[in-house]
Amino acid sequence: MMFRPPRPSPPHNAATIEAFAASIKVKGVLQPPVVEIERGEDGAATGNFLVTIGEGRRQGLRLLAKRKQIKRTHPVKVI
User: Fold this and answer.
1) pTM of this prediction exceeds 0.90
2) Phi/psi at 39 (nearest 5 deg)?
3) What does the alpha-carbon distance between residue 74 and residue 64 come to, in Å, rounded to a whole number?
4) Burial of 68 (0-12, 13-18, 19+ CB in 10 A)
5) Is the pLDDT at 9 greater than 90, yes or no?
6) Residue 4's pLDDT is what?
7) 3-state SS of the chain?
8) Measuring CA to CA, how many Å separate 19 from each of 14, 24, 25, 60, 69?
9) Are 39 and 45 in contact (CB under 8 A)?
10) pLDDT by residue (tens digit) across 21-59?
11) How many whole angstroms separate alpha carbon 17 and alpha carbon 19?
């Protein structure tokens, strides 16, 4: 999953991302992120997904993966 610019909400601060990571570590992802398929200039799917809703959860998951508390390939249900 990748960040989808531009987004209407302001970026999350470090404390918020820490809170997301702590919550995900204890409870898992309770509300799945909403994603869309990334498309190249030719309109073909690139194989990546862009987060349209749930950027804080994505950043919390990245933080947990960086700390090796979950695998980088940890499956995440998305909508």
Assistant:
1) no
2) -120, 140
3) 10
4) exposed
5) no
6) 72
7) CEECCCCCCCCCCHHHHHHHHHHHHHHCCCCCCEEEEEECCCCCEEEEEEEEECHHHHHHHHHHHHCCCCCCCCCCCCC
8) 9, 9, 10, 8, 15
9) yes
10) 999 999 999 999 999 999 999 999 999 999 988 989 999
11) 5
